[in-house]
């Protein structure tokens, strides 16, 4: 299955616009790690791909954690003494400290202030703050909004509920020829934030749609989960599945105009790390590669020592490194159709490597075959040999059953797609034979 070739037959501008439009649809929803916001989000993804949703009850023990109470919110505001809403959840859902307990009170500004969060350095932006694991309430507002608050009494209302309920997550499973799996995971728990959350979610949904119904080597499992607690919950309830996960990617912050960054898995040299490194190096501008660290997104959980899955994290701008991160400026103007489409293409190219990274055996190992006799020489004409001929020579030389096509692509410096095309052509001409997938050799347990 030539995923990249098929993807490149589509119109990237149209794909970019569709991705951005889907982000626009999802943007207004007030999501959190539990509650109706994430349910509505999953329902909208369900309109596009076959997604199964799971509800895990509050209080369920998941390793060292417990599934929290479910949070829902209807409304929230701060009213001045004239009854005017000076901070209004209906204007922007970031105005409420996510997971705020319900409040109805009247209080002087001095009492209210400890519950207000702003960003003095960017006085027009509203911060995104949460208090999942400590019961608290608060409002987030622009610094200028806070400076405009006069002394006096304010009516404060957070019409929320924090009760026993469920943690909700979604899973899209696409069966392939092998039971071995590729995991694609993204968090779906942030309210109106575009790059951190919606970019990963929309690209993952489109990627699942693109793969749906295809004849695939691997099985694919897409997770749309609340950050941290969702990954921990999923891992606690799917330990048997983790034995089949050979490769994985966490997708986040991939809709902005920054260059690509890839954070390697804890293993550092897993096939996914090499596949991403190869693809970004050949197909993107000045990518940067980051070593694994135990902080970031859900790769932290997948790469915890008990699992040590081969899961890395694909980003453009790195979380925390751009000023818009976790603020109202990470909005629909911060992500763009072109980088969204390019990120989807990059994911497709990475999966194309995984799908086609096989080992072959030359059927003509004693000296070079006479390529001209097989019509496999000088297809490009001119002086010297073209990259397509060089690719054929590399594949023929290194296909002794030991080296994979990715090994050959790395060693030759030729893009994987050309190496892979060369292997196809040589097979068609009876010069090369694929070695059947070796389950023992490619077991996920390279611990
Ligand atoms: Zn975040």
Describe this structure in words.
Helix 2 packs across helix 11 (337-356). With 447 residues, this protein is of the alpha/beta class. It contains 14 helices and 19 strands. A hairpin with a 5-residue loop joins strand 4 and strand 5 (85-88). It is 32% helix and 22% strand. The strands form 5 sheets. It has an 8-stranded mixed beta sheet, sandwiched between helices. Zinc ion binds next to loops. Zinc ion binds at residues 190, 196, 326.
Brief rundown of the structure:
By secondary structure, the protein is an alpha/beta fold. The protein contains 14 helices and 19 strands.
Question: What's the structural blueprint in terms of helices and strands?
Answer:
Blueprint: H1 3-7, H2 12-26, H3 36-46, E1 52-57, E2 61-62, E3 65-66, E4 70-79, E5 85-88, E6 103-108, H4 109-112, E7 116-117, E8 139-140, H5 143-147, E9 153-163, E10 166-174, E11 181-187, H6 194-211, E12 219-225, H7 229-237, H8 239-242, E13 245-251, E14 261-263, H9 271-283, E15 288-290, H10 299-302, E16 311-315, H11 337-356, E17 359-362, H12 387-398, E18 400-404, H13 405-412, H14 416-428, E19 432-434
Parallel strand pairs: 7-8, 11-12, 11-13, 13-16, 14-15
Antiparallel strand pairs: 1-10, 2-3, 4-5, 4-9, 6-9, 10-12, 14-16, 17-18, 17-19
This protein binds zinc ion.
């Amino acid at each position: 299955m030539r995923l990249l070739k098929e993807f490149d037959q589509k119109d990237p501008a149209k794909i970019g616009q569709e991705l951005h439009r889907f982000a626009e649809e999802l943007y207004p929803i007030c999501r959190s790690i539990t509650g109706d916001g994430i349910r509505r989000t999953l329902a909208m993804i369900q309109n596009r791909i076959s997604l199964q949703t799971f509800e895990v009850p509050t209080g369920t023990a998941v390793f060292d954690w417990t599934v929290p109470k479910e949070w829902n919110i209807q409304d929230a505001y701060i009213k001045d003494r004239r009854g005017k809403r000076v901070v209004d959840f209906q204007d922007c859902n970031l105005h409420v400290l996510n997971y705020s307990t319900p409040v109805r009170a009247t209080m002087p500004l001095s009492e209210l202030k400890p519950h207000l969060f702003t960003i003095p350095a960017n006085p027009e932006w509203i911060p995104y703050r949460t208090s999942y694991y400590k019961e608290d309430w608060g409002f987030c507002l622009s610094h200028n909004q806070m400076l405009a608050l006069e002394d006096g009494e304010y009516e404060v209302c957070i019409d929320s509920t924090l009760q026993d309920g469920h943690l909700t997550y979604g899973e899209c499973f696409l069966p392939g020829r092998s039971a071995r799996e590729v995991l694609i995971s993204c968090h779906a728990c942030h309210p109106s934030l575009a790059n951190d959350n919606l970019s990963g979610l929309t690209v993952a949904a489109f990627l699942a749609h693109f793969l749906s119904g295809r004849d695939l080597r691997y099985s694919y499992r897409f997770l749309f989960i609340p950050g941290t607690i969702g990954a921990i919950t999923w891992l606690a309830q799917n330990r048997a599945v983790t034995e089949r996960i050979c490769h994985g990617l966490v997708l986040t912050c991939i809709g902005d105009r920054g260059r690509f960054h890839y954070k390697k898995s804890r293993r550092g040299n897993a096939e996914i790390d090499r596949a991403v490194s190869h693809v970004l190096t050949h197909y993107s501008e000045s990518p940067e590669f980051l070593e694994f660290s135990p902080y970031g997104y859900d790769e932290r959980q997948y790469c915890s020592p008990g699992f040590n899955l081969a899961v890395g994290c694909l980003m453009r701008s790195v979380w925390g490194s751009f000023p818009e991160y976790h603020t109202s400026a990470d909005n629909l103007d911060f992500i763009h159709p072109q980088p969204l489409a390019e990120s989807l293409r990059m994911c497709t190219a990475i999966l194309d490597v995984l799908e086609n990274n096989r080992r072959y055996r030359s059927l003509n190992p004693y000296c070079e075959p006479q390529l001209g006799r097989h019509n496999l020489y000088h297809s490009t004409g001119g002086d010297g040999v073209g990259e397509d001929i060089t690719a054929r020579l590399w594949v023929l030389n290194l296909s002794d059953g030991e080296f994979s096509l990715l090994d050959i692509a790395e060693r030759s410096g030729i893009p994987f797609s050309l190496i892979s095309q060369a292997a196809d052509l040589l097979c068609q001409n009876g010069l090369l034979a694929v070695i059947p997938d070796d389950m023992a050799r490619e077991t996920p347990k390279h611990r």
